[in-house]
Amino acid sequence: MRKLKITELNRLSTDEFKEAEKLPLVVVLDNVRSLHNVGSVFRTADAYLIQAVYLCGITAQPPHAEIHKSALGAEFSVDWYYFRQTEDAVVQLQKEGYTVFAIEQAEGSIMLNHLHLQTGQKYAVILGNEVKGVQQDVVDMCQGCIELPQYGTKHSLNVSVTAGIVIWEFFREMTYNNN
């Protein structure tokens, strides 16, 4: 087995990415502190043709060297928008017809492995601060919460790891299960 060279991967250029059909999914970062986490979310959003990333509150915005270090240029391909208040992002998304979920451990949350998405629906997922999670006021505005099943001693995953798992599951469900 031979590893492929970068030139053999046939990846999109930034211009081709901008023109490509996107997955109708917006990832919202609610007061995420780590610039490496922000960059990692951009990189994953690029990998799965996500519609946009919304950066809210204290979440840093490009251009920034620490974001670029993890994003590797994905901050230039993926559309992003900044909101001072996460609540404003949620209101806008809901007005635009998105079903908005907080990724949070909450009463009545849906386990990610039990999630069933509707064909033709637009979705947004909100990932919260590394310590405090998604703000309760924001959770209250959402149509529901999605929780990742976990079986060890820790009660949470790193926000960029969580984003990767959630984005992949939405991509898988929306791409393969809705055809």
Summarize the model shown:
Helices cover 36% and strands 21% of the residues. By secondary structure, it is α/β, with parallel strands linked by helices.
What this model shows, in words?
The chain is of the alpha/beta class and 179 residues long. α2 runs parallel beside α3 (65-71). The chain has helices at residues 14-19, 35-47, 65-71, 74-77, 86-95, 136-141, 159-176; strands spanning 23-30, 50-56, 80-83, 98-103, 110-111, 122-128, 144-147. α2 (35-47) links the parallel β1 (23-30) and β2. A seven-stranded parallel beta sheet has the order 3-2-1-6-4-7-5, sandwiched between helices. It contains seven helices and seven strands. The longest helix is centred in the last third of the chain and has 18 residues, at 159-176. It has a single domain (19-176), classed as SPOUT methyltransferase, trefoil knot domain (Alpha/beta knot).
Give me the secondary-structure topology.
Elements (H helix, E strand, L loop, with lengths): L13 H6 L3 E8 L4 H13 L2 E7 L8 H7 L2 H4 L2 E4 L2 H10 L2 E6 L6 E2 L10 E7 L7 H6 L2 E4 L11 H18 L3
Parallel strand pairs: 1-2, 1-6, 2-3, 4-6, 4-7, 5-7
GO biological process, one term: methylation
GO molecular function: RNA binding; RNA methyltransferase activity
Keywords: Methyltransferase, Transferase
